[in-house]
Amino acid sequence: MRIKSSINLAVSVLSTAILVACGGGGGSVTPNPVPTPAPTPAPTPAPTPEPTPEPTPVPLTASLLSVTVDGNAYDVIQMSGVSASATPGGNAVANLRTVYAYTPDGTDGTGTYQGSSWPYVTTDRDISELVVDFVGVEDVATFTKNSENQILINNQPAYQYTGDASDTDASGNGVGGVWYLFKPDGNTLEPSTPEPTPEPTPEPTPEPTPEPTPEPTPEPTPEPTPEPTPEPTPEPTPEPTPEPTPEPTPEPSPGTYNVAGALGINGPFALDSDVNSPDIENISNNFTNRAQFLETDTTLLGWVGNDDDVDLYQVIAGTSQINLELTMVNHDNNPNNTTDNVDLDMFVVDAQENTNNVGGTYAKVENAYIPAGEGDIYYVIIDHYRVDNSVPSSYVLTQTPQFASSEAQKDAAARANADFDLDKILVAKRPAFSGFNLNQTENELTQEMGNVDGGLVDTSLNALSAMAGLGNDENYQSTLKESLPEVYEKGRYMKAISVLSSRSPNLFVEPSWNRYIQVETFVKDPRYDTYQWWNFDVVNIPEALNIIGQETKPVNVAVLDSGSPYVVDPAYDGSIFNTEWGWDMEDNDNLADDVEFEQGSFSHGTHVGSTISMLNDGVDGNGMSARVTPIRVCYQNGCGPTYSAYLYLNGDANDSDTNFAQRSGGQKLHAMNMSYGGSGGSATSASCVKLGELADKGVLIASSSGNSGIGSVGWPSACPKVYAVGATNGTDRRSSYSSTNEYVAFSAPGGEYSDWNADGVDDLVYAYAYVDSYVQSNNNGNPLIGAQGTSMASPHGAGFLGLIKYYYEDIAKPFESNTSLPTSLTYVEVDKMLAANLLTNDVNKESRPNDSEARPGRDDHLGYGIIDLHKAINAIDSFNNGYFTSFDTLPYYEGPASVVLTAEDSYQSQFSIEPKGAAGAGFNDVTYSYPTGLLEVTGNGLDFTVKKPDDYDFAGWVSTTILFDFPLVEGAQLPFDNYELLSVGVNVIFNVIGEAYAINFPALKARLLDPNGVPVQEVISSVTDGQGIFAFTGVEPGNYRMVIGSDINGDNSWGGPGEMTGSSELFEITDSNISDLVINLAPELEGVANSAPVISSTPPTDAYVNQMYFYGVNATDDDGDSLTFTLELTNKEDGSSADFVTMSSNGRVQGTPREDDIGEYSARIIVSDGTDAAIQAFDLIVNE
Question: Is the pTM of this model over 0.85?
Fold first, then answer.
């Protein structure tokens, strides 16, 4: 069954060449301008009226659009006729669109945004051609442009917003608090900085006209609150400083004292707007038109139950992925206990209500994520799944940026991706699978899988649910199921997968995550100078082929893609596709032809494969002197049986009943290429494990990093032993679509639809891709088709890896003269060569136009840099000439990838960097730099201490870098000319906890406890706008601890898991009041809500002189906590303590009163579990 793809390749034809764009999950095909236009602009120009042939240039204009913002009407600037091109901010359109300012740019005329949602507004024309159509406007903005052709309005760079679908949209104002509309005078609608007088004393004087006497307070010194008029009923001033109880605490009686202090809430923090507390006004957030806004990094405390079966929160994405963790309170951490545990599922959907990812299991903690994409809107849905039970619960939702997340958090978030096929699952044997002692579920799954080691299994949601034993939901009703049934089905699918996986320890059971083709397309051959010079030159392929020869080498690269060209086509003759060694995994036959190619459509697999294997034969274009084994796994932009292809290459049992080794006669597989990917995966998935086995055998694996831009992660490129390849354009910058993340290993030319290098041809990657009949009739006979995408970058990487492996193992063979060297070049050696700067060029080490941030060393944009085949051959030769004697002694520096500063360690930490091989004294110096406003760094040799400056108190996450450079000393002997050590960046991460604001808790219970946890006093306090106070009065000297908690779930528990809680350390009252306690409240995550002890026995209330008094206290605790028993007995006449009866440790009250004990007594029995206590009070009369 073919996976249906949502990606469309639009085809348009110009008069001479064809351009294709390849990338993560989407693409387009458009023809490609040739330096000289078609010699005969015939009566009928190209059939498709795409705006590339430049009919009549659209005038460059600026006009006005009337909008309403916050109830006010404004005219704002729009522009049309600008350049339709790829920019560092995304793909701009020439049509009339509203324009915006990005406040971080300031007014120095340089655009700094990088991403995909806010394209730069640029023009190649002279700015004097701009027609400003502002009718009736006197004060008109100044329009200029900078050196990068970005249009400036009053020297502020202008941008479009991809969220504006038409010329009447202006939906980007205020997004992220940094994007604002331009007014006609060039100013923006950015709110003016709040006037610094929000509280200029609401009334002109603190005492408007109270009573003539300014201080009618009975108490002369109201200690805790020095308000001049605490309680003479002053005018109802709207906010008499947000202190809920401004009245001073009463003076304590002699010998007792007061305890008071302030309450605050750690922030950013949010409270679910519809909880179960009668003290809090509920506002429904149960669907998209009522979604509650949630700021990035906010911790959320929420509750679901009864009729409140779903909560919705709207979030705006930023430049980094945000990982979400949902922790349920009424859950004992046993996923099999579906009877008693609450079950909450978490979904992230986009503004079009498409499901992006799902946390849907039976676990206590669910994971999901907000994708990177500055300004993009998403909804986080918390659904109360009640098929198995209807247990209500509080929950806590936390957000952590990707850069600060643990590997476990990243992996759990990646597994939540919801881009999968509901009609398939992936089942595969784990490496230790023996076939013995399988349980019932494993037997059933292996029977479904058949006599293979893994692959896709056809199923249905109902069949999958039945196999997992999910509860019948045929008559189940819920807000989510009725309103968003497709979202609900994704959750049920994931729940079934999680159950089957937990029951199958010998198998991988995973979603069938979708994979997409990533298209967004030495003697020089005839078309080299026009089309191929830039991408081949930047990788230094011609120089390398001068050394190793341009004829085709026995370098075998498996290309997993849409197949190969038709055998009788010139594209087949002009490249080396060893179809007899490959396989069609989709149709399960030995003919790996690309069906789309045969039908005259663009062939992604042909383009990718011919980039590697095009012959250097004086015809058409050049290749990399390698040969390709095509494995067909993709079709119509979707890719399906990829796991079966991994089995085929690894020699495992698969649907083909054969494998690469059998069909090739035992040929060595040097490298493999995967120009596809998707956002679902995991480092421990079946695919990553199987690819790891191939890598362990020596196969070097390249995969396109993805086309989703800043902060996006794709699979399988993120697998541990796979090289994720990023894309660059004609000026060696990151192509705007190329994904950035920690897994990018290196980069290669991927192209971009613009002529960055000004040679008259778009900076695309050109190769075979169309059947010859189409080339002749639609492309003037030019067989080279232009395409862009990380799909195009990856084959450069795979060919490069195959060639260096071949050169090391079969040509140079340095291990013959130095037997300590390995005979095979694997990912282990390649990793060390990358770190030693032997395979790439660090083009990001300095800032450049349109890329103002320098990123020396390995970075998330280009990895270690752009591959350089000539440099790699020189490096291998340096093993042959004895300069390098071991891969373990290559020169580079190693430091921690990141250092985390925590409040517990006073935001300070230590780390070291370590030289490897020849690096160090006598070879290089060490210098370092860092942002002094964010860090303080001191060094002692190669040991360093880093801390947050004491005066840095801005709340939020910080991720910044200490950059180490290693300039070579004069006279240092180098392995080859121009060699240099790679810089090393140590990422420093810290999070400053701020204070929450605009948060109200009308009722919080504060309890003063003695050292045994026995309550002494209880008071009700509150928090208004994030601040509050508390006070206990008449407290006797002694040691105490204060705890405070909320009750949002309405169970009268007041604190504990799922509630806001806070507590003090033990403190002592001696001879004065305490007024400076500060308690910060935060959601409590761990454990379950505490159940207080219950006393069920009734005490005898009469005792008699000289007769034994006995009372056995019967107390229970639902949590099974250990209980302590305390007795307080006080003479009601004189207040003295009595001791004629005592309490045992197991709750036995007994004793014999004497004649002088006759009288009435107040008795209090206190039973405590250490958190809560039960108190039984009664009067005891001692009779004669």
Answer: no
